[in-house]
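thought: fold this chain, then report.
action: predict
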Amino acid sequence: MEIEQAEKEPIRAASEEVSREFKTLINDEDLDSVKQLQHLILGRLQDSNAVLSHFNEYSEHCFSEVSGDFTRNTRLLRSMKSDLDYIFQKLRSMKSRILATYPDAFPDDSTGEVIDRRPDLEMPQ
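observation:
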């Protein structure tokens, strides 16, 4: 037991000496200034965190209010698109039957193939 104590004593003395030397390297005013700045930054970060938390709660509330409307309107728009596609398909079919029966029914420039330039809303861009 005394051997362990004898081995620990020089280690303890050396660590105290190193600690004293470190204390001489650090200026107390600088250390206090760093602590003050850290507390200031901590306060600002906590304020920012509170603002962001409030904004997230507000955004979540707003989204929950309008998400049903978005879903309903999206469904309505898809239905309207489907209906319009069907209508235009029928119109093209009727136009081709009229052209087959009455070749002079439409002017020459209106019989050309019309390029569909509408964006496909269902395909991601």
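thought: worth noting. The CA atoms of residues 4 and 57 lie 60 Å apart.
final: tokens above.
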